[in-house]
Write a structure and sequence with these properties.
Radius of gyration: 18 Å
Low-confidence stretches: none
Mean pLDDT: 94
CATH topology of the largest domain: Rossmann fold
Shape: globular
CATH superfamily of the largest domain: HAD superfamily/HAD-like
Distance between the termini: 9 Å
Order of helices and strands: EHEHEEEHEEHEEHEEHEHEEH
CATH architecture of the largest domain: 3-Layer(aba) Sandwich
Structural class: alpha/beta
Number of strands: 14
CATH class of the largest domain: Alpha Beta
Number of helices: 8
């Protein structure tokens, strides 16, 4: 019976520390799993513009981008949801009032607010995009400014209590370790993306697997029959059905092998 697995990127396919190359064992495992007739999808918080050739070269059947704001299968776009421009405008004003420093994400661009204070966390991301893709950085003052989701940095200068309360009227607020939050428009999530992909392929939830390493991967676990945490994903481990090895210890290979993804 055909199975399907959904993969986070950072900390799951690509190490977050040390050597950032995708492990050779992961490349081999994905190839064997596809040759056995299974479907493999990326399910990431990154927008499409920020998924690079190192991941795309692995031959995935499809992608869920931006925490469920967009999904594609091969060359076919399954769906896409963006934030209405009026809500984008109100959100920018709220962030300015509460002093949360954002980086906006759209499927074709990233956006920054140059009226806000400059902090290394956001500047490093912006500068990386400027270096690699000079044509995909947009600004809140642009006439065509819009976004699909965003992250924001907060600290003691941020009215985070008000910001979180107001944002949760229209968005899901995802805690990301005490320095920033990931903000996704309702009803999108990594789970809703999986549900739409399973419906498209006609695959039952019982044949669906998801693997991740951090708490922003937790929504995936509610949408699949089997949840897998990487050995390096200490915060996610208590919520998983199965814990594989660390990313540097062939964790993806061992997970796919354990659940029979190499069997023809």
């Amino acid at each position: 019976m055909q199975k399907i697995m959904f993969f986070d990127i950072d900390g799951t396919l690509i190490p977050e520390t040390g050597n950032r190359d995708i492990p050779e064992s992961t490349v081999k495992a994905l190839k064997l799993a596809r040759e056995a007739g299974n479907l493999l999808y990326v399910n990431t918080g990154r927008p499409a513009v920020n998924v690079n050739d190192d991941v795309r070269s692995l031959g995935f059947d499809g992608y869920i981008y931006g925490c469920g704001t967009m999904a594609v299968c091969g060359d076919k776009e399954l769906y896409y949801q963006t934030v209405p421009k009026e809500l984008c405008r109100r959100t920018v004003e709220l962030l300015r009032e509460c002093n949360g420093v954002p980086m906006f994400e759209r499927r074709d661009a990233i956006g920054v607010d140059l009226t806000m204070r400059r902090i290394p966390f956001v500047e490093d991301i912006r500068n990386d995009f400027l270096k690699r893709r000079k044509d995909v950085v947009i600004y809140t003052e642009d006439e065509d400014f819009s976004f699909d989701k965003f992250i924001y940095y907060y600290d003691e200068h941020t009215d985070n209590e008000r910001l979180k309360k107001e944002l949760e009227k229209d968005y899901y607020w995802i805690y990301r370790g005490g320095i920033f939050a990931e903000i996704v428009p309702k009803p999108c999530s990594k789970a809703s993306g999986i549900e739409k992909v399973l419906e498209y392929h006609g695959i039952d939830k019982s044949q669906a697997y998801a693997v991740g390493d951090s708490l922003n991967d937790l929504p995936m676990f509610s949408a699949v029959g089997t949840s897998i945490a990487m050995g390096n994903g200490k915060d996610l481990i208590p919520h998983a059905d199965y814990v594989t090895d660390d990313i540097h210890a062939d964790g993806i290979y061992h997970a796919l092998e354990h659940f029979g993804f190499f069997d023809k």
